[in-house]
Amino acid sequence: MLLVRSAYGQTTGEVVLRETYWPAVEGVALPPELAARSAILIEAATNTVLYAKSADLVIPPASLTKVVAIDVALAAVAQGELDLHRRSQPSEAGLATSQPPRSSLMFLRSGQLVSLHELLLGLSVSSGNDAAVEVAARVSGSMQEFARRMERSALERGIVDMRFVEPSGISDRNSITARAFGRYLLGHLADYPTAIERYYEVDRYLYPGSENLSGTPEDVGIEQANRNGLLRSYPGADGFKTGYIPASGYNIAVTASREGRRLIVVLLGVEATTAREGSSLRERDAATLLDYGFEAFENVRFAHPELEPIRVYGAAVRFVSPSAPGSFQVTIPRGQVSALRGEMTQVDSMVRSDSAVEVGNVSVHLGDVELVSSVITVPPQEPAGFVRRIWDSIALAFARLRARINGVAPPLVSSPT
Questions:
Q1: What angle do CA 262, 79, 161 make, to 5 degrees?
Q2: Which letter does DSSP use for residue 316 in this model?
């Protein structure tokens, strides 16, 4: 069976995407067995998982950790803690010479002047461990406190199964799952949509430039290519990050956009004997899943049906128009639009409430499977005057009596009038 899992049981506004399962899509073969030990494919617009393989397996993220570091740094800028473009000298801890052997580097050196923006490019393009340490120092003063902020950024998005002890990804004590990291990326994109263009899709980065040298230019600028090769080989690919440490194998998180749709892939634990082989396998797996997502599925948007006014007893206004989301999307196997059907339930009367009241539901089904639902609500209402409340209480008593005689639901009672 093909797993199509929506929204991880969460709500998007008032729209709830249900967990659903589909058989293989006719005419489109399922992806072959992947080299990755763990994988997930997500439709970003609807938060729908289109493919999963051991997606809850705990694996060190390696340099995928740097995406979380970028998120925390951008949050600090948004909160006014840091200036994105003010340049200052790197700390001793952030220098390239202070990093462990065989570290990937952006080559921070003493005497240079570097901005947070440039450090984030050093994270996303050069995958610099020195950049990660320096970002942590600037944002939080220490790697330990920065790691705590990284975990808080996950918890704030409702993600409990991501652990960090440092921001570069070199430690095998950092841990994620493909499902958790995919969910994190959805939140990261939603909060910082311009990060794609500013950081992740940048193909090459030269550092240091003349603007980074405070004295006589002795350093020669080093231009490094983005380690995400899909930026150059896969149409529409524009992010995110690759990673490798021996404890995890070769990892990649990648996103691609085509014709208004965005897919996210997270692959963890590709095993290989050489870096070239590992990079090739993870990019092959990611391209396979992206092809599958674009070819086998489509998004369908629905307008909300017209809603009937609700009779409200005890309110200043007798009839109130309920509200619901204007539209919502679902992701379905391609070519099955004609099999979709909608259902709506709505009460015709209620008692005034000082808070919003759920008075109905709209849902969309494919076959017997509910894909999405949204609630119909009535906003809080001002109370009627004394005389109106007396008459409405009498009318409400008769309405309840008629409902009992006819065996139907009585007016919805949310709070006393």
A1: 55
A2: S
Whole-structure pTM value: 0.84
Report yes or no on 8 lying in a domain.
no
The predicted-structure confidence for 271-298, as pLDDT tens digits, reads as follows 999 999 999 999 999 999 999 999 989 9
Q: What is the DSSP track for 32-78?
A: PPPSSSEEEEEETTTTEEEEEESTT--B--GGGHHHHHHHHHHHHHH
* Residue 255 to residue 240: CA distance in whole angstroms: 6
Cβ atoms within 10 A of the Cβ of 191, count? 15
d(CA 43, CA 182) in angstroms, rounded, equals 10
The C-alpha atoms of residue 122 and residue 222 are separated, in whole angstroms, by: 11
Q: How far apart are alpha carbons 314 and 330 in whole angstroms?
A: 38
Residue 36 near residue 53 (C-beta atoms within 8 A): yes
- The verdict on residue 24 lying in a domain is no
Three-class SS string for 323-389? ECCCEEEEEEECCCHHHEEEEEEECCEEECCCCCEEEEEEEEEECCEEEEEEEEEECCCCECCHHHH
Packing angle, helices 178-191 and 65-78, rounded to 10: 30
Domain that holds residue 55: 31-298
CA distance readout (Å), 257 to 202, 213, 228: 15, 38, 15
Q: What is the pLDDT of residues 153-203, one digit of tens each?
A: 999 999 999 999 999 999 999 999 999 999 999 999 999 999 999 999 999
CATH of the domain at 354: 2.60.410
Q: In this structure, are 273 and 311 located in the same domain?
A: no
